[in-house]
Amino acid sequence: MIQQTPPQFSAIKIQGERAYDLARDGETVVLQPREVEIHELILTEQSDKDHSVFETECGKGTYVRALARDMGRLLGCYGHILALRRTQCGPFTEDDMIPLVELEALCDRAASGDGSLADALLPVETALDDIPALAVTRADAARLARGQAVLLRGRDAPILNGTVYVTVGGRLLALAELGNGELIPKRVFNLTGLVASPDSS
Question: Residue 75 pLDDT more than 50?
Answer without folding.
Answer: yes
